[in-house]
Specification:
This protein is an alpha/beta fold and 277 residues long. It has helices at 14-26, 38-41, 47-64, 85-94, 108-118, 153-161, 182-198, 218-229, 245-248, 251-259; strands at residues 2-7, 29-37, 69-77, 98-102, 123-126, 140-143, 168-173, 206-210, 233-237, 264-267.
Length: 277
């Protein structure tokens, strides 16, 4: 099984380096793909030109990959489809364990929600504030908010991690609703995290309900806890509402994608079993 890295133009190293610690912890190999748009690379009316351009792009990809990263071939862009679609289609065809994407710039930054919903596996994403691989063993901080959609993070991680001894800490940030007492919210979230732990393949390292500090947002609280606990990855499920990214990912996930120095492991509400929805 592999981690499939969808490389951005001009950078064949950053994303494989970001994916390598988790791949190593899970005993997975790394493979990479690059986008190939025949219409932008050759005369579409001339099949020989298209094939020559494709062969040259394949050779360039193989030559530029870092040691230890295999070529998964090109992701062919068809009929002006969005750039995120070809790597997702390749993931559907090749069945990796994880799809890794570089969302530091467009197009992935704006369309990650759509890609997550379409992908058959969880998506590992690095955002604009990504700070490089952490020099520590992999440790995952998984976020939930008590909703059924967010609960999908537990079975998705169970499928992803398998028997690997990767510690997972479950976190809920206790922001009470209007009229709700803080202690009631904390009790509800504690019960929700306990239920989530049963969905993991191994007991969570810790369950933590964290009240936000004064003027602290939920994403900021999550990043603070990640720093306090030495987390190397953040994991969460999307909420899958609406068309815009802020609804497809949820406002917390969007903020984390834009501000987190750590990679995000993102899955859709139905997890891998809901691929193709």
């Amino acid at each position: 099984m592999t981690v499939l890295c969808a490389l951005p133009p001009g950078d064949t190293a950053t994303l494989p380096r970001a994916a390598e610690p988790l791949a190593r912890a899970l005993g997975l190999s790394l493979a990479a793909t690059a986008l190939f748009d025949a219409a932008a690379s050759a005369d579409p009316a001339n099949p020989a030109d298209v094939e020559a351009a494709r062969a040259a792009a394949e050779a360039d990809l193989a030559a530029l990959l870092p040691p230890g990263v295999a070529s998964a071939g090109l992701s062919l862009r068809l009929n002006g489809e969005p750039p995120w679609a070809p790597p997702v289609r390749l993931a559907i065809a090749t069945a990796p364990r994880l799809l890794a994407v570089d969302a530091r710039e467009t197009p992935w930054l704006g369309d990650l929600g759509r890609a997550v919903r379409a992908a058959p596996v969880p998506v590992l994403a690095i955002g604009p504030r990504y700070a490089g691989p952490a020099p520590t063993p992999v440790r995952i901080l998984a976020l939930a908010d008590g909703s059924p959609e967010s609960a999908a993070v537990a079975p998705a991680l169970a499928r992803l991690l398998g028997d690997a001894a990767v510690p997972v800490e479950l976190l809920a940030v206790a922001v009470p609703a209007v009229g709700e007492r803080p202690e009631e919210r904390e009790l509800d979230l504690a019960a929700a995290l306990q239920a989530l732990e049963r969905g993991l393949s191994a007991p969570a390292a810790h369950r933590r309900v964290e009240p936000p500090r004064a003027f602290e947002s939920v994403p900021a609280a999550a990043l603070r806890v990640a720093a306090e606990t030495g987390a190397t990855h953040l994991a969460l499920a999307t909420h899958g509402r609406g068309r815009a990214m802020r609804f497809l990912l949820g406002s917390v996930a969007e903020a984390l994608l834009r501000t987190s120095p750590l990679p995000l492991i993102v899955t859709a509400p139905g997890g891998a079993d809901a691929a193709g929805r």
